[in-house]
Structure formats: structure tokens, C-alpha cells
Amino acid sequence: MPSSLRLWPGVAAVTILWLVRFGTPVFLPESGMRGAVIGSMVCALAVFLWWLAFSRAPWFRRLAAMGMVAAVLTLMPRTGALHPSITGGMMGMMFMIQSLPWVCLALVVSAAAATNGLALLAAMLLAVCGGFALLRADGISGEGGSQLAWRWTRSAEERLLLTMPKAPLAPAAAVAPVPVV
Known about the structure:
The protein has about 180 residues and is mostly helical. It has helices at about 10-25, 30-55, 60-75, 85, 90, 95-110, 115-135, 155-165, and strands at about 135-140, 145-150.
């Protein structure tokens, strides 16, 4: 008789991850996004450690899920589906940093749905990838957070160019040569 999954450590770790990632900039603004990103990576490591060592899931399911997560985080930036501002943002780590809370949430939710956990995980990872394929990065805010926008909206530069005059500027009047007498 297979033992039931031990879910509470994963649920606790992903809850703390979301609180750290999105609560730290609000409640501890002096730490900026650096504390939030580092804290969320530590919590993501706790989620992955729970899944591999303490979840009581069958080993095939554990390894298959981690393989899917690793494939998404490493291969998605190389597919060309993401906007170049996301694949190149944050020294090439923007997709991983921004998608980590969503990937960990997908792992825990798919573990809770024990009947078709791997199929649900695959669908949720595709949804995460599809969501990020619809975004672009407009830059980094003063606090260090990414400014994400829909891919099809105009950037600040495009909006500025729309305010420029349409007609080209008239050339400067030519100065008539002064005759030498």
C-alpha cells in the first residue's frame, strides 16, 4: 500500500516563497528586490528539496516532475518564444527569476492533485511559459523590480515617437555666397 503524499512542507514552503517574493518589497522596501529575489530562490530550493526528499511521491514521479521543471527553466529561453528583453534581462536570468514562484506553485498544486499530477504539472508549466511569452520587459524600476508589459503594447520609445512632428524639418536656408570684388 503506497503511503500518502506529505504535502504540508511543500504548501508551507510555497506560501513562504510567495510572501517573501511579493511581500518583502512592500513591507521591507529598504531591502529592495534583492532580498525578495534571494529569499524566493531559497524558498524555491526548499520546495524542490521537499519534493525530492520528503514528499513520499513515487520516485518516477519525483524525477519526472523535476525533469519537466528543469527543462522548462533551461529550454524556454532558447526557444525564441520569449521576447528578447526577457531572455536577455537580468543578465539572462529574468525568465528563471520571474517564473520561479509560478513553477513552484505549479509543482505543489500538481502534487496535491495526485491522480494526474504529472499531466497537470505539464499543463501548468505550459501555462506559465505561455504567460511569459505574452510579456516583455520595459526595464527595471528604481527599487529593482522588473517593469513588465504586454508584448503588443507600445513601449515608451514608441509612444514618444508618436508625439514627434510628422513632417520633416525644413532644411536651413542656404546662405548666398558673398561676391568678392
